[in-house]
C-alpha cells in the first residue's frame, strides 16, 4: 500500500515540476524576445534623428508624397544637396514611407528584420503614414519610426 502511494506522489510531483518549468520557459522566452525588440527597435536617439529628419523633409516635400503601401525614399525624392550628408551623419541605411494602416505587403522585397519591425508597429488611423528609418550601426540594423499626417 505504501509503495503505491509513494509512486502516485512521485508522479504528481514530477507533473507539477514539469508544468512549472514549462510556464517559466514560456515567460522567459517572451522576456528575451521583448528585450531584443527594445534593443533593435525604437532607440530614443534614433527616434530623435527620425523626428528631426521628418521636420526637415516636411519643409522639402515630404507631405506631397503618396504611396499605396511602402515607398523607399532616397535623396532623389527630395532634390536636396545636403540629403546624402544627413543620411551619412545619422547612419541611415534606408528610409521608408509606410502607409499608416498597412495590412498586406510583399514581404519578399524586404529584409526579415524590417518585416519584424513592421509587425511590431501598432497600426491605427491616427497617422496617414509612418516614416521609418533603418540605421546601420556597427554591423547591425536598428529601426525607429514616427507618424506623419
How does the SSE layout of this entry go?
Elements: H1 2-40, H2 44-59, E1 70-73, H3 83-89, E2 92-99, H4 112-120, E3 129-137, E4 140-148
Antiparallel strand pairs: 1-2, 2-3, 3-4
Task: Label this structure with key terms.
single chain; 149 residues; alpha+beta; 2 domains; 4-stranded antiparallel beta sheet; 4 helices; 4 strands; elongated
How much of the sequence lies in strands comes to: 15-25%
Number of domains: 2
Unreliable spans are none
The rounded distance between the terminal residues' Cα atoms is 75 Å
Main sheet characteristics? 4 strands, antiparallel
Averaging pLDDT over every residue, what do you get? 81
**Spatial strand order of the main sheet:** 1-2-3-4
Portion in helices = 40-55%
Shape: elongated
Order of helices and strands: HHEHEHEE
Name the structural class.
Answer: alpha+beta
* Secondary structure tally, helices: 4
Number of strands: 4
State Rg: 23 Å
Amino acid at each position: 500500500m505504501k509503495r503505491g502511494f509513494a509512486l502516485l506522489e512521485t508522479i504528481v510531483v514530477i507533473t507539477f515540476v514539469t508544468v512549472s518549468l514549462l510556464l517559466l520557459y514560456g515567460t522567459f522566452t517572451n522576456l528575451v524576445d521583448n528585450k531584443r525588440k527594445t534593443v533593435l527597435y525604437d532607440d530614443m536617439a534614433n527616434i530623435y534623428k527620425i523626428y528631426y529628419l521628418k521636420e526637415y523633409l516636411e519643409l522639402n516635400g515630404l507631405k506631397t508624397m503618396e504611396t499605396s503601401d511602402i515607398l523607399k525614399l532616397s535623396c532623389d525624392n527630395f532634390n536636396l544637396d545636403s540629403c546624402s550628408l544627413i543620411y551619412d551623419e545619422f547612419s541611415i541605411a534606408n528610409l521608408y514611407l509606410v502607409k499608416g494602416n498597412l495590412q498586406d505587403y510583399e514581404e519578399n522585397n524586404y529584409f526579415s528584420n524590417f518585416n519584424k519591425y513592421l509587425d511590431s508597429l501598432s497600426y491605427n488611423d491616427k497617422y496617414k503614414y509612418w516614416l521609418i528609418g533603418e540605421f546601420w550601426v556597427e554591423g547591425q540594423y536598428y529601426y525607429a519610426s514616427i507618424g506623419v499626417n
